[in-house]
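Hi C.,

You asked whether I'd gotten around to modeling the 133-residue construct. I have! Everything is below, sequence then structure, no commentary in between.
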Amino acid sequence: MLPLIQDKIRERDIPTKSIKQWTDPHISVYVSSTTVKPTGNTTRDKEVGRFLLKQTIKWALSLNRQYDIKNWYGIGATPEGQALFEALSFMEIASVHGGARKGYRIKDIQTPGRVMSLFLKREAEQNEQIKRG
């Protein structure tokens, strides 16, 4: 994962032998990026983004219950992405391009409810900001 996190390789360059079966012990999961193509309707774009994020978190928590996942990794390529990883308790493990791209990791999610509650709190704060402005 480190070469990917450090921007030395791209997703397409991940060696096939590095991809493990879900049933293997102590696997690591890379959470790839998702981008919402702007439509010009900022409110709708934010709603779509939150929906996708919420579904991704539910998927991750489901996987965490089913499989022996040791680490979760992701890349924050924008300030918003970095803030999101940090809000979800991911720890920064790499920073490249002057901090424009940061790699994150979270170890075993022992308390998945905590991760989801952090997300839901952040989502509620954003909804309140939308209502005010």
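If it helps when you're writing up: The radius of gyration is 16 Å.

Thanks,
B.
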